[in-house]
Amino acid sequence: MFQLTDQIINPHALCDAVRNPSAGGFASFEGWVRNHHQGRDVASLEYEAFPALAEKEGNRILEKICTEHDILTARCQHRIGHLQIGEVAIAIAVSAAHRDAAFTACRAIIDAIKSTVPIWKKEHYTDGTSIWVKCHGCAEHHHTH
Amino acid sequence: MNGLLLVGGKSSRMGTDKSEMIFRDGLTQRERGIKLLASVCDKVFISVADGKGANIIADSFGNIGPLGAIASAQKHSPDSDWLILACDLPLLETEHLKALQAAHQPDFDATYFRSATDALPEPLCAIWSTSSISAVSAAIASEKYCPRSVLKQLHGQALNSPSLWTLANTNTKADAIEIRARISGSTQEKTIIVSYFAQLRELTNKSSENILTYSETPAGLFEEIRAKYTIPLKRKGMMVAVDGDFTDWTHPLKEGEEIVFIPPVAGG
Questions:
Q1: Residue of chain B with shortest Cα separation from A81
Q2: Chain A within 8 Å of B266 (Cβ-Cβ)?
Q3: Does B198 touch chain A (CB under 8 A)?
Q4: CB-nearest partner of A139 from B197, B237, B267
Q5: Strand (E) or helix (H) holding A34
Q6: Which of B42, B66, B75, B119 counts the most CB atoms within 10 A of its CB?
Q7: Which domains are delineated in chain A?
Q8: A33 touches chain B (CB under 8 A)
Q9: ipTM, two decimals
Q10: B177-224 pLDDT, tens per residue?
Q11: β-strands B258-262, B56-58: how paired?
């Protein structure tokens, strides 16, 4: 299940949600708000989503990757709103019978989310300026490179 | 003044050779381009990537795009001014080329139109004078191959594009649908609900609006919105949604549909 939230993300709760007696492996990923980007000092980040489609697309990604990689359960939460340095922007938790599937799926999920889920990020810099960040792994790059 | 028709593009977004597509009068874009240029120029040449012939100018600069074609023409006839024309402008008329020539002065390096959507100079429907040769050569020497950047540095005059669609290129299938609808006059008025998020919400200062449009596809509607709010984003790299899910830029717009334009995403 993919969820948007405007509340602080609790990765432990996400971990508990994917516990399963058949699971022998668990992998997780957290994206944190970093204080620098391309040489600039970042003060905070603002995330905005097109909510209906972000959740629809996020869930499609989870379902597809769970099927492809033999995953027992997968959960993802993405934060929206204004985040401070060090806060969790995204958390992904997957459980599988074996570790290979868990690692691979976790990586595939974050890459796919960055590529197509309609969420945007505005960086606020310490000098008072701000810009909407251009993607690093978005659809454009998949088409043209 | 000589005319140069550019037909050597890769047409990668269209997926078929644009110069061979027919939009008007039963003529291919190549044939129509020659006819347009012939009506206002002394001699007409065709720029191709590779080839020989009386009216052919092969691009001798290799794979650097249209600036190489312009430079090749200037090398061919350095004492002539050149009217450079892309072949993929079906709504362009002879009168528009005449307007360029009428505005052109002997001391100008260039005379060109400004795009109606983003106000940027249009280098491929423009007069490039003999006095632009040094700037073109210098740009190529420093491996800066964007003809628009060269045009911006030149002394000349910019005319406003006569309408939003006059200089519309047929780059994509959606462009072709919009342009064909305008040629045939089959466009129909419809109200579309457009919702804006993130950068587009800030640029438009709106979260949603109803737009009365004659566009056939989200691509045409986006060009209207770009012009209305001077939006610096281009369709390339963007996605679009209708009624809450992704769709193609060629989606036929219907009364009451809700459209969301999706700039490059940056989640995670």
A1: B198
A2: yes
A3: yes
A4: B237
A5: none
A6: B66
A7: 2-144 (3.90.1170.40)
A8: no
A9: 0.91
A10: 999 999 999 899 999 999 999 999 999 999 999 999 999 999 999 999
A11: unpaired
